[in-house]
From TrEMBL:
Residues 29-149 form the Pyridoxamine 5'-phosphate oxidase N-terminal domain. SUPFAM superfamilies: FMN-binding split barrel. Gene3D superfamilies: Electron Transport, Fmn-binding Protein, Chain A. It comes from Stigmatella ashevillensis. Pfam families: PNPOx_N (PF01243). InterPro entries: Pyridox_Oxase_FMN-dep (IPR024029), Pyridox_Oxase_N (IPR011576), Split_barrel_FMN-bd (IPR012349). The lineage of its organism: Bacteria, Pseudomonadati, Myxococcota, Myxococcia, Myxococcales. This is Pyridoxamine 5'-phosphate oxidase family protein.
Amino acid sequence: MKTVTDIEVLERLYGVPAKQSVFKEVDHLHPAYRPFIEASPFVTLATCGPDGMDVSPRGDPAGFVVIEDEHTLLLPDRRGNNRIDSLRNILTEPRVALLFLVPGVNETLRVNGRASIVIEPSLLERFTFEGKQPRSVLHITVESVYFQCSRALIRSELWNPARHVPRSALPSNGKMLAEISQGTFDGDGYDRDLPDRVKSTLY
């Protein structure tokens, strides 16, 4: 299989980036970019660490990622599965990347920076929601910001309801767990209890 192993070959293959693809990248939260963060209810958080890479979905009502200033974002860490893969990575390698999505909008916003895990009580209190505080807040120092063009979401038709896949068309959580455990896990019971469990532990 022919592969690319040289940066010069790669650059010849793809050519020179368009002028706007370069100057759109800035080192701060430019006013033109802030509305994407404020309107976004969903962001993916990418981290890296000694055991490899991780990409984690984060979501809350739009504006849950707070713009503290032009170089700082605050991201509450809501209740999850307690694997804390992203947080483990940040402790050893603070570099992070975020991809903000806005429902119905094909452009996305990319933010790169460095994160620290903050447990200051006053900050946790700021992010109380539904009566629950996050266990920690990520303090993200922004290093680069730029918007991603619409091609990927247009090609995928991500927001097209006609393309939405019914959940029933895919294996349930319980079925996947039962198969992975070779039948030693009670998948039917897991599926039966899941809706109430998610509702009671959302925050």
